[in-house]
Specification:
The protein is built from ten helices and twelve strands. The protein is of the alpha/beta class. The protein folds into two domains: 3-207, Spore Coat Polysaccharide Biosynthesis Protein SpsA, Chain A, CATH 3.90.550; 219-286, no CATH class. It has a five-stranded mixed β-sheet. Helix 5 packs parallel to helix 6. The longest helix is centred in the last third of the chain and has 15 residues, at 219-233. Keywords: Glycosyltransferase, Transferase. Residues 8-165 form the Glycosyltransferase 2-like domain. Belongs to the glycosyltransferase 2 family.
């Protein structure tokens, strides 16, 4: 029998087909079931949201604005004190929520995430991550189930738990387009604000890592998000390294033009003036290979 937890799970979905229904069923039938499941349909045309849903599910629809906008919308309407952002191609098992809630009770300003394994081969992937190159690519961190709570440099957005009030006060996800890097930018901003990023190996979520997405990826939006993250958080040699890596892509021109259309340097200055921990310390600890020195 499921035991409702004081959690709103927010699922952003776009052209996910039957994977969405399977994810919702896993949550609804779980030993640790959330009080509510908010599905934000980010402009799907595949009919994946057009079905009868369990009573705890609410479906919101919007034009295709990207994962950050969809997650932010779900968080705004959430009614529970804790929000879990979950990809639409996941499954949960056992008491997966209780360990996350316990850690948030001890560290209410934290971003926390579970251990993750691959849905196809059941291979253990990791718990938390660190940045490994100038484009903010990340690598999963290995952690044993009995290791206890671990500090991490990044809680990947496929499953991320946070207190709603803390998330809203921080401004939510940056208004990035498409998909990609929104979790990295949030981690950088969160860490600089002095808040912890924690991995909880005791909690386990299964994620389907797909070779190809069920929709055409927007590479310009991804590159634009990389550049926006760099403009917000990097400077000097680190910023030059990221921009140089981005110039390899044919879409660099339109991506940098769009990225520079907002006052990112003013936002960069504001972040630097209000940070509790310097971004250089984050880069030394969690991205030494990507941004050495």
């Amino acid at each position: 029998m499921s035991r409702d937890q004081p959690v709103s799970v927010v699922i952003s979905t776009f052209q996910e087909g039957d994977a969405l229904a399977a994810t919702v069923a896993s949550l609804d039938e779980a030993e640790d079931a959330p009080h509510e499941i908010i599905v934000v349909d980010d402009g799907s045309t595949d009919g994946s949201c057009d079905r009868a849903w369990p009573a705890r599910v609410r479906v919101l629809r919007q034009a295709h604005h990207g994962i950050a906008a969809a997650r932010n919308r779900g968080a705004r309407v959430a009614t529970q004190p804790v929000v879990v952002f979950l990809d639409a191609h996941c499954a949960v098992e056992g008491p997966w929520l209780r360990p996350l809630l316990r850690v948030l009770g001890e560290a209410p300003r934290a971003l926390v995430g579970p251990a993750v394994r691959d849905a196809d081969d059941r291979r253990y992937v990791g718990c938390g991550a660190e940045i490994v190159d100038e484009l903010f690519t990340y690598r999963w961190r290995r952690a044993a189930a009995d290791e206890g709570v671990v500090e991490v440099g990044l809680v990947p957005g496929g499953c991320l738990a946070v207190r709603r009030d803390t998330f809203m006060a921080a401004g939510g996800f940056a208004d990035f387009e498409g998909f990609g890097v929104e979790d990295v930018e949030l981690a950088l901003r969160w860490w600089r604000a002095g808040h912890p990023l924690l991995g909880v190996p005791e909690s386990l979520v299964t994620h389907r890592f797909r070779a190809t997405a069920p929709y055409r990826p927007d590479h310009r939006a991804w590159l634009q998000n990389v550049l926006r993250t760099a403009l917000l958080h990097l400077s000097g040699d680190q910023l030059r390294a990221c921009v140089s890596a981005c110039t390899r892509f044919e879409l660099f021109g339109p991506a940098i033009a769009t990225a520079l259309a907002k006052p990112w340097m003013e936002l960069h200055r504001q972040l630097a003036e209000t940070e509790h921990r310097p971004v250089e310390e984050y880069l030394r600890r969690w991205a030494p290979k990507a941004f050495p020195g």
